[in-house]
Amino acid sequence: MDILRPRRRPVAQAEPAAGPAAGAGIAFDRVSLARGERPIFDGFSLDLREQRIGLIGDNGSGKSSLLRLANGLLAPDGGTVAVNGRDTVRDRKTLHEEIGFVFQNPDHQIIFPTVGEEVAFGLTERGSTAAEARRAAEDLLAANGCAGWADRAIHELSEGQKQLVCILAVIAPAPSILLLDEPFSSLDLPTRLSLSARLARLPQQIVMASHDLDLIAGFDRVIWLDQGRVRADAAPGQVLPLYREHAGALGSAMLERGAA
Fold first, then answer.
1. Sequence-separated (6 or more) residues with CB below 8 Å from residue 256
2. What's the predicted TM-score (pTM) here?
3. pLDDT tens digit string along 29-72?
4. 8 Å CB contact between 86 and 95
């Protein structure tokens, strides 16, 4: 099977979508990371600049670790990670101004009892008064079909509604980059499609890890991670068929082992 070679530069496009300005985006430079005795990345370098980037790979391939390095939740053991020119270790306290992170499980992200408080939090952290943040949160909710949600209790929401609140809370302070780690894995198909359509309309650069290949088929670039290395990196039409072939072969091998 032919494997596409990793790139440090964006895929050339005839009509590139509007994206981060030159020098913006996320840059991994010779990054090393280990969890206990297990190495995750070793001398890993990659530039992420396209407007929509999908991350795929088997469990344990490094997708979640890459996202957590990018938002400062993990610090590299060696090398550097920069977001719009800010070092994720040196500038960690101000990194939230550039980047927002949506967890796979909304219950791991939500910290306030009501929708309005959750959406307004990032705005107050950026210096808005409580009244200003409340008004902005209500406006954002209304613009996304959630008028009247501000005083709703989080525990009354469905999983899809919670995930939407997480996304709105992250975009409220207007970061330039959104990172999403399997954000739709527990949602039904209509909800996944609805949230995916909302994300497609956002101006931010988006980097999303997903096992749902159909959701990233329209992205600008897809990166297949395999044991902390880039196995393929190009347009979705080139990478996704390779990964489907790999996953099919792996699934067949698992069935054969189970039948033995």
1. none
2. 0.84
3. 999 999 888 999 999 999 999 999 999 999 999 999 999 999 99
4. yes
In this predicted model, what pLDDT tens digit does every residue of 7-35 receive, in sequence order?
Answer: 333 333 323 334 444 458 999 999 999 98
For every residue of 93-137, DSSP letters joined together read GGGGGTEEEE-SSGGGT--SSBHHHHHHHHHHHTT--HHHHHHHH
Residue 66 CA: distances (Å) to CA of 18, 19, 116, 125, 146: 24, 21, 31, 25, 32
User: In CATH, what class is 55-68+103-113+153-259?
Assistant: alpha beta
Give the SS3 label for residue 51: coil
Which three-class secondary structure state does DSSP give residue 153?
Answer: strand
Return the domain boundaries, the chain. Answer: 55-68+103-113+153-259
